[in-house]
Amino acid sequence: MALESTGSYSSLMSNKNVITPLRYLVPGAERPIYFASRGGADAALKIGARFEDREVLVRDARQLDPPAALARQGFTLLPQITSVVDFYALETVRARYDAEIVELVLSATGAADARVFDHTLRSDSRDVRGQRSTREPATVIHNDYTNASARKRLSDVLAPEAAERRLQRRFAIINVWRSIDRPVIASPLACCDAATLAAADLVASERRARERIGELELVTWNPAHQWYYYPEMTRNEVLLIKTFDSDAQAGATRSIHTAFSNPLAPPDAPARESIESRLFIFY
Description:
By secondary structure, this protein is α+β, with helices and mostly antiparallel strands. It has one domain: Jelly Rolls, CATH 2.60.120. It has helices spanning 94-109, 126-132, 147-157, 160-167; strands spanning 18-25, 33-35, 46-48, 51-60, 75-79, 113-123, 142-143, 171-179, 189-192, 202-208, 213-219, 227-229, 237-245, 257-259, 273-282. Strands 1-4-12-9-14 form a 5-stranded mixed β-sheet, with no helix packed on it. A hairpin with a 4-residue loop joins strand 10 and strand 11 (213-219). The longest helix has 16 residues, at 94-109. The chain is globular and about 50 Å long. It starts with 17 loop residues before the first strand and ends with a strand.
């Protein structure tokens, strides 16, 4: 039975908790360097560091009661029906999609204002990446920003006077992640409960891309980490991930995350096709 013909995956994936390897940084003397890929069939992670796979339990976050929240766990799932039909033609409707996710994030966070500054398309299919010039899923545990690079990114995006004004008050960065086609089966995204993360687990690492040099955080093994994912996310659901918060008293200030190979996915599971959008939110 081909998955495409059923329209439903629930009967095939009734037990949603999984035990699977996640990739942690091995501590070393040298500063890790993460080389961001350019889109295409051969797009692949390249990192100047050593990693180790650790078998972990990744729980079904849909079963959490109360549900995961940005302020506690650093991530949450929300419903949202998007008006975008073809995300590969996003530039033609970008203003409309930006407005959709700004409205959603402001409602979810209580922030006063928001600014979308990045969209990234990914797929775990070499063929899809080749056809669409998209990037690969990030399969090492990471957080997108350090305290320093979050502030630097704000200064890069905004005009100097606006950036200086925003830096005087609380701001955060939210990643809005969703499927752009069929439910995500084979390469879902796992997020770690921020309350189980220790500062010592985080290693500031250089991130080199064609257009700029920045920083992100890679993560060393800690058995206290508690991992979650949302099985079978559809294009009408969005995962919000807090990747930075300038207010250290605000609860979760970041949520480490990674794509992983789902052991419950059948061999003919559809390719993952996803978009992540990053927003500054201002209080």
